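Newbie here. two chains, one complex. Structure please?
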Amino acid sequence: MTTPQQPPAPPQNAPQTPPHAAPAGPAPVAPPHPGAQPAAGHPGQAQGYWPGQAPAGGPAGYVSPIPIRRATLLDAVASEWTKIRSVRSTMWTLGIMVLLVLGIGFLAATLVAGQDGDTGNSSPLALGFFGVLLGIICVVTLGVLTISSEYGTGMIRTTLTACPDRGRVLAAKSLVFFLLTFVITLVSTGMIAMVDSTLLNGMTSYSPDADAWLRATVGVSLYVATLGLLGLAVGALLRHSAGAITVMLGVVLLPMVLSLFMMGDALSDVRKALIEYSIPMQLSAFYATEADHMTGPTGWTPLWIMLGVAAVALAGAYASMTKRDA
Amino acid sequence: MIELEGLTKHYGDVRAVDHLTFTVRPGIITGFLGPNGAGKSTTMRMMLDLDHPTSGTVRIDGRHYRELHDPLRTVGALLDAKAMHGGRSAYHHLLCLAQSNGIPAGRVREALDTVGLSSVARKRTKGFSLGMGQRLGIAGALLGDPQILMFDEPVNGLDPEGIHWIRNLMKGLAAQGRTVFVSSHLMSEMALTADHLVVIGQGRLLADTSMADFIAENSRSFVRMRSPDHERLREVLRGAGIDFAPGAEGALEVAGEDAAHLGELAARHQLVLHELSPQSASLEEAFMRLTAGSVEYHAHENHRPAAAAPAPAADGQWGAGWRKKGS
């Protein structure tokens, strides 16, 4: 016997008033209710209201029948996964990336295999490099768009209203984007590594060991996905898709281009550093063998450098999201 | 229950919101009224922790918005109709919102049904009209079945049927004991829906009153009488013991008397009347009087009464107002 004369009793699963319900009038006054203090704030019961009098009822004037459970980071991750898979740009950027990695890797291998003779002691896996280098642009674009498109469309205000914890939003976005691009890149680099080593079987004296395989697949994929995270952070900092993509293209290409015009001995150290630490060169390090005599960072070092840069940029993005108005 | 205390927001040296203190109570519809650029949207964004106040606080059921763990279960908000990614379908837009707050996915269908968008659930929102965007925004606000609902200009872009629908929806929500806070720049719209009224202008609180009080104070009705024989009209009215006040252009304004009765009175005295018209000051006029001093973007009409725009000089020359945009 809760509230027999409750105005429009909400059905358990659809608590809103149906679209064309008759006007309920301005808050009908509940008749005196034996055994219930007006201040008790009955769920769903209309509050009487007169001018100058505060309506009875505590903060909980209405209690929803839907069970409440505390939202966690996992809920935010599920939400971001829905977001990233429900826009076309994800399919386009990652699809083109896969096509580039597989297509160019296959083309390079068939060209090399078509030549007669020995390719010396270079790694057959290195032929995957060219496709990945171009594929980077797609991954970086997706990374930027993951967050900048929310600022561009106004979606970010809806997102932050649903989840006011900026750290959780940024973490969920980063996690979903990183895992998705890592898995896609890993599958495509893994496939092209197998294709290339099969096609070039017997043409090279170098046989890649487990570490070489790992670097050319897992290493490259981690590096590319981390570079994409840097794009995501830049997107969050600039809040502008075109601007952030341009900045990221500059980060990838400018060091190499600048070094081309650095003549003279005085600048030789700068030129050398620009080349060695440029992103294409760092990426090629994952395919390099001892015989390549790389002078810059080798082995897994490029990954640690990129992780550090991305971490700093993400920290900046978090600070920016927390400080600035959405 | 939403409590604002001394809420202030500066953009540079412009005060978009200036020491707002008021309380939005459950069980009624509270109208938030002000001319364009008065700071309504800025205030609502600060309530939702999207913008940071320069000073002052907003408490939602005693807590700051950022302290809410699953805010959609507590507050549902419609900020603007286009706060969504155009490439995403209506269904996925609501689904990602539901997931972020641990709301069962079944609620998405219910919310779409409630706002009447079920048939376009799989369509990308890019092709939605403004009214459809508003409905989807409202579906997002209703998703978590919250106690508090905030709607920023919800009737914008809706057709008459949609306006009728949103009015009834808000009344129904308030009748269930929820807190409903709705902004508008149309007094006539508020008069039909709101029980309580908060009026702001240039970021300052101008009125915080019940709708009934506001109507009682502002809907003064009178009969305007005009006669070529002005003096005789006065004598006749005085003789009948009827109070009157001088109106514009030699007219007399009589309050509390029936127009028919006044007409018969004049006829009995064979008095020629040029005008006998019942008048009532509209709420819209009352609202304009209230906010006249604080309207931000005046149209440059030369015949505007001087009293209506008392201090344009404070804004400096023409164009200074543009810097205030963003509220």
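Moderator note: DSSP finds ten helices and no strands in chain A. The first helix of chain A runs from residue 73 to 85. Thread marked as resolved.
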